[in-house]
Amino acid sequence: MRQDTTSPTYRAYVMFILVVVYTFNFIDRQIIGILAVPIKADLALTDTQLGMMGGLAFALFYTALGIPIAMLADRSNRTWIMTIALIVWSAMTALCGTVQNFWQLFLARLGVGVGEAGGVAPAYSLISDYFPPQQRARALSIYSFGIPIGSALGIVFGGVIASKVDWRYAFYAVGIAGIVIAPIFKLTVTEPKRGQFDANHSTDASPSLGTIVRKLAHKPSFWIMSFGAACSSMMGYGLFFWLPSFFVRSFALSLLNASLFYGAILLIGGLAGIWLGGSLADRFGADRRGAYVVIPAIAFVATVPFYVVGILSPNLTTTFSRCWFRRLWGLSG
Predict the structure, then answer these.
(1) Does residue 333 sit in helix, strand or coil?
(2) How far apart are CA 88 and CA 83, in angstroms?
(3) Residues with Cβ < 8 Å from 231, sequence gap 6 or more?
(4) End-to-end distance of the chain based on CA atoms, in angstroms?
(5) In Å, how far are 175, 220, 270, 323 from 236, measured between CA atoms?
(6) What are the backbone dihedrals phi and psi of residue 196, each rounded to the nearest 5 degrees, phi first?
(7) What average pLDDT does the chain have?
(8) Distance between CA atoms of residues 72 and 55, nearest Å
(9) Structure confidence by residue, pLDDT tens digits, 244-303
(10) Is position 297 within any domain?
(11) Measured between alpha carbons, how far is 191 from 206 in angstroms, rounded to an integer?
């Protein structure tokens, strides 16, 4: 049954289920960080192979498929795209639990990247059609809660299962859970009318990729923001993957304690930072649109001293507090 997509109650539900899906997106994406410790020992991997598995394997198709899937989302049913993507990345995550060597795991992680390429762009588009312009920064901030929640759950859940049972069962559990969520998402989320909250919106067909590229070519701000986002992602995903191993190797933490320790950093600092960033953007961006760029820039610069002190400190308590502040300011951008 089609729902009233302008109803505040229904929009709240849509935001909730989108956060749930994004949470699974990041659980499946980041669980590999804490499981890298037992996987390395079990499959006899090198740090180079771990780096390829955690970075290149996921990013290769995730990056390459981003624009084609976004173009498809501009023209097709976005809820179907997200449903299929969720099933694909969840199935490939479960498949990670069956691997017996590096290349099998590398290919399975490629599959996770293929699926997750279809998870974010359609969701941004849906949010833009469910919320008016003056509420979108906060709406996107709430959606982004899936990043710290999913990352923290992936780290903690993976650490607990790997410590108490076996690392393979962690992949099985989160993969199967994602597949179960997929039909619930499809059956309960209605495809909204495009541009229903935008003044003078057009019902014409979406412009071609060439038209969009030509328009963006004359917008230096877009390329500067893209470069900043790329730098942020490079730093953030590198930390996501390697910090659990850093805690185990440098501070002799058990896998379970490292997962609880890092999970707390991700959850508390991440939630606070994302909400702070969205609130500040909506507050100051209403009068000065440049604030949407200035606020992330200030936040990212503010992370630098916390990052340096946290990584170089020989004291675990200092490392925890500095990493917490780095997540707070990093995600407020």
Answers:
(1) coil
(2) 9
(3) 300
(4) 38
(5) 23, 24, 12, 12
(6) -65, -20
(7) 85
(8) 26
(9) 888 888 888 888 888 888 888 778 777 777 777 777 777 777 677 777 788 888 888 888
(10) yes
(11) 17
Residues in the chain: 333
The CA–CA distances, whole Å, from 54 to 59, 110, 238 equal: 9, 10, 9
Can you tell me whether residue 62 is helix, strand or coil?
helix
Confidence of residue 322 (pLDDT cuts 50, 70, 90): low
CA distance 196 to 232: 32
- Residue 155 DSSP SS3: helix
- What are the structure tokens assigned to 142, written together? 């709430």
**Single-letter amino acid code for the residue at 54:** G
Higher pLDDT, 95 or 310: 95
Q: How far apart are CA 262 and CA 244, in angstroms?
A: 7
Domain that holds residue 228: 8-195+219-332
* CATH (domain of 186): 1.20.1250.20
Q: How far apart are CA 99 and CA 101, in angstroms?
A: 6
Report which residue type is found at 140: L
φ, ψ of residue 106 in degrees (nearest 5): -60, -45
> Is 130 a member of any domain?
yes
The Cα diameter of the chain in Å comes to 60
Q: Is the pLDDT of residue 2 over 70?
A: no
The residue type found at 285 is G
Cα–Cα distance, 28 to 331 (Å, whole number): 20
Q: What is the pTM of this model?
A: 0.80
Q: Is residue 227 included in any domain, yes or no?
A: yes
Domain membership flag for residue 205: no
Rounded CA-CA distance 116/130 in Å is 22
**Among candidate residues 54, 46, 48, the one with its CA nearest the CA of residue 28:** 54
Give 173's contacts (C-beta < 8 A, 6+ positions apart): 157, 161
Nearest-CA neighbor of 28 among 240, 186, 249? 240
CA dihedral sign of residues 175, 266, 273, 236: negative
Tokens (6 digits) for 176: 């199967």
